[in-house]
């Protein structure tokens, strides 16, 4: 049961999110439906905070020269994906979050929605739908192609 807690927490971590947490749940041998639910809920945990606080924190970071590298990183990620989402807002946000690739998860989708000033409720629903789709894709890949996300290889590489 402690492993499920780690799946939950790991899915809330930026960059890693569901892409790392769901395969970890399979590595531990849990039921795919349980992994799907825990991974999705964990990844959803930071979304309201990002939607509500992103612009305040971002503006504070911009004023502080010590965080220049972080601001440049955020600017590049947002400007890279801003145009894709601005045009078709809700559908684009869902699709963007649903694609299980690095920097396309719930964290980035929420930050872009906040940056663009999209409605909180709509943004939360769109990000959640995208998160469900992403979790479904990752869970399916882990079920049907178990070597695709080989957690053992990653763990061995990290702890060698």
From TrEMBL:
**InterPro entries for the chain:** Sm_multidrug_ex
Q: Mind telling me which Pfam families this protein's record contains?
A: Sm_multidrug_ex
Q: Which UniProt keywords apply?
A: Membrane, Transmembrane, Transmembrane helix
Where do the TM regions start and end?
A: 34-58, 91-116, 122-145
- Lineage, top-rank taxon, reads Bacteria
Q: What is this protein called?
A: Membrane protein
- Organism of origin is Clostridium polyendosporum
């Amino acid at each position: 049961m402690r492993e499920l807690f780690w799946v939950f927490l790991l899915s809330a971590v930026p960059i890693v999110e569901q892409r790392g947490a769901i395969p970890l749940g399979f590595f531990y041998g849990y039921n795919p439906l349980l992994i799907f639910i825990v991974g999705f809920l964990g990844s959803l945990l930071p979304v309201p905070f990002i939607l509500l606080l992103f612009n305040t924190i971002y503006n504070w970071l911009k004023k502080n020269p010590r965080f220049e590298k972080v601001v440049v990183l955020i600017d590049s990620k947002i400007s890279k994906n801003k145009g894709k989402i601005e045009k078709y807002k809700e559908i684009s946000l869902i699709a963007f979050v649903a694609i299980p690739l690095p920097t396309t998860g719930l964290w980035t989708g929420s930050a872009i929605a906040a940056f663009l000033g999209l409605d909180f409720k709509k943004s939360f629903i769109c990000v959640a739908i995208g998160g469900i789709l992403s979790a479904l894709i990752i869970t399916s890949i882990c079920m049907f192609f178990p070597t695709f996300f080989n957690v053992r290889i990653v763990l061995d590489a990290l702890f060698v």
